[in-house]
Design goal:
- This protein has 15 helices and 17 strands.
- With 504 residues, it is of the alpha/beta class.
- The chain has 2 domains: 217 residues, no CATH class; 204 residues, Alpha/Beta hydrolase fold, catalytic domain (Rossmann fold).
- The strands form 4 sheets. It has a 10-stranded mixed sheet with strand order 3-4-6-8-7-9-10-13-14-17.
- Strand 9, helix 5 and strand 10 form a beta-alpha-beta unit.
- It is globular, with a radius of gyration of 22 Å.
- The termini are far apart.
- The C terminus is likely disordered.
Length: 504
Amino acid sequence: MQNPSTPLVKTRQGILSGTSEENIHIWRGIPYAAPPVGDLRWRSPQPAARWQGVRRAETFSASSWQDIEYCRELGGGDPGSFSEDCLYLNVWSPAARSQPLPLPVMVWLHGGGYTIGAGSLPPYDGKALASRGVVVVTVNYRLGHLGFFAHPALEGEDGERIYNFALLDQIAALQWVQENIHAFGGDAANVTLFGESAGARSVLSLMVSPKSRGLFHKAIIQSGYTLPDLPREKALAKGQLIAEHFSLPQASAEQLRAIPAQAFWSLTAPLTIGPAPVVGDAVLPQPMLETFFSGRQHPLPVMIGSNSDEASVMAVFGVDIAGQIQKLRRERRFGLGLIKLLYPGVKGDEALGREVCRDMAFTTLGYVVMQAQQRVGQPCWRYWFDYVAEAEHQTYPHGAWHGNEVAYVFDNLNLAEPVRNYANDRDRDFAARVADYWANFARFAGNDCHELSGPVRWPASVRGRDRLLRIGLHKRAGFKVENRFMRARLALFRRVMKHHVTLD
């Protein structure tokens, strides 16, 4: 890093030149694997090629093929150009350090239901988070059918079953971090993997994958969901249907790889992919939820939480929230009277469905993971995000929407749409406090640290203690530690989760 305005780093693939902004060095569009095109489509990512001389890393790469309007509306902004050649990452690192020691690393996996998103979106700008003394990495990975695909013609091509190519991309990015992050000032022995929605689901999947063991040391799960993984048999049947859609009923691997990359993202149901990985391959041999239920996840410190109005995303997932209550009433397989008892004062199927669906699909996961963490003797920090920017209280009457916490975690209210248009100083101050907690987790969380400092001391749930930090109180600024948060509801939903949380 000889020239402060054009920081140079030497990676295993070659030398990179970046840029400097506000005392943060930034490298954009770094290849972490070979382009997954041609014969490499639907294969494990291969090492990136070496280069001679200095490669400029000043602009973001293309994103995986996706629906640009959908991403602008729901994914966090404009993902830019698209290409099947999309395996690139971005790094933000403090230019000046108060101590010579390597810095904690935070690797971000974006959400978007595995169909939209990119590491370059404005809410994920790593500058503000990096200013807290961490190295931030954001990752692009294959989306949609390019990222998840099963077909008999592709079975066992490389000697093992692979359907979760997107998860393998994320693993390859983590391997790149292990090999190179020291050059950027990062500590390869202190890597926090964090993500939201499908990114959180990826973190959960990598916590149980045999292929990711040892590649990260802490995990943050923001609004992960309990929808079941797609069984291998169903994935193969869907792959056949997709091939038939392209008039390839007896498709060969070569014919499948000849389909243009841009032909997949616009497919409609039943040919779309769901917001969950495929279970039954070398990446995810066992269902993620079952692995946590039995306490067989990789043992490492975890932070997990969700938002107060996660049901805001249910329609996107195809869930009729009022219909869920009507279904329970019809089938009588679940005590509706008990549910009403657990939600006192909530009137009408729509309002009740909103809270029940939120808790079954999102809130309960934090409780399940907390119990799994206690089984393996690892700390678990739980949160409930319920802050709404002061100008948005009418827009979000039920609380914080799915994804609304991301701009606070990155301290990017000035960059994220639409909140950048009306966030005030009090909103920005609250975001700064949230980002501090996340950076402190990356820096300090471990078996020797069971409390995070901040506006209030945030204790982990350890040794049978059920504790949770409320981040925002009834949409307003405030932090409060609560014991046994929603305990009766979550204990009930945990018992019936496998039977009731589906998209059917």
